[in-house]
């Protein structure tokens, strides 16, 4: 049975009654004495969760609220992410966005990661195109890195390079993981000259390692 629960009591009361596989610890959601809201897909002890009920249950949950519970929804996404509940992240994030709420880089990042983990590359691409159109000049390095990581994970080197091109055009400097993924994409496509240029331009000459309990800088 799927429930969306409103609680004015500490969450540990709820945990006694339900097996909450999608939530790690009550303390991660709220202090024990704080009034809080929970948007969570809860699996009853004697039944299986039904993902199709998430959105209707959430709609009922906010029906009488004067304001959208954005903070609680964001907390729910973080909890689900810690529990690797990718399908539920997709459901909750899509529900939030359908209400015109939560259109933040953190929500987009969680949704893109969930699409990646679920192998839903086409949906990730649709979301990415929307982000590019709506937030052209304010896309963070983190989101660019997330999308490049997704395409690299699913072996789409042409798209890795395309996203990297947008990144360069907007003047966003890639991190070292992204540089390695882009260089690998050029290598797969047989464009070794561009691979060398990317490494020469962006790859750091130094890296940090831990040695004898200290952080030490060494040449790559």
Total number of domains: 2
Name of the top-level CATH class of the largest domain: Mainly Alpha
Q: What is the name of the CATH topology of the largest domain?
A: Serine Threonine Protein Phosphatase 5, Tetratricopeptide repeat
Number of alpha- plus pi-helical segments: 11
Strand order of the largest sheet: 1-2
Could you describe the 3D structure shown?
The chain has 220 residues and is mainly α. It has two domains: 85 residues, no CATH class; 118 residues, Tetratricopeptide repeat domain (Serine Threonine Protein Phosphatase 5, Tetratricopeptide repeat, Alpha Horseshoe). It is 56% helix and 8% strand. Strands 1-2 form a two-stranded antiparallel sheet. A two-stranded antiparallel ribbon has the order 3-4. Helix 4 packs antiparallel against helix 5, helix 5 packs across helix 6 and helix 8 runs parallel beside helix 10. The N terminus is likely disordered. This is Pentatricopeptide repeat-containing protein, chloroplastic.
């Amino acid at each position: 049975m799927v429930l969306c629960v409103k609680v004015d009591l500490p969450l540990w009361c709820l945990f006694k009654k339900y097996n909450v596989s999608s939530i790690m610890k009550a303390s991660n959601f709220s202090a024990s004495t704080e009034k809080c809201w929970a948007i969570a897909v809860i699996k009853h002890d004697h039944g299986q969760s039904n993902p199709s009920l998430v959105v209707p249950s959430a709609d009922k949950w906010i029906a009488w609220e004067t304001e959208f519970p954005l903070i609680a929804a964001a907390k729910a996404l973080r909890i689900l992410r810690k529990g690797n509940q990718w399908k539920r992240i997709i459901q909750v994030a899509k529900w939030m966005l359908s209400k015109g709420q939560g259109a933040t880089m953190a929500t987009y990042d969680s949704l893109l990661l969930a699409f990646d983990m679920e192998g839903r590359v086409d949906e990730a691409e649709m979301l990415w195109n929307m982000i590019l159109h709506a937030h052209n000049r304010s896309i963070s390095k983190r989101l660019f890195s997330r999308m490049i990581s997704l395409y690299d994970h699913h072996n789409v080197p042409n798209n890795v390079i395309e996203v990297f091109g947008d990144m360069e055009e907007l003047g966003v400097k890639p991190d070292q993981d992204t540089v390695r993924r882009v260089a690998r994409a050029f290598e797969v496509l047989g464009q070794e000259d561009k691979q060398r240029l990317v490494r020469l331009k962006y790859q750091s000459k130094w890296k940090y390692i831990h040695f004898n309990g200290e952080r030490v800088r060494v040449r790559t």
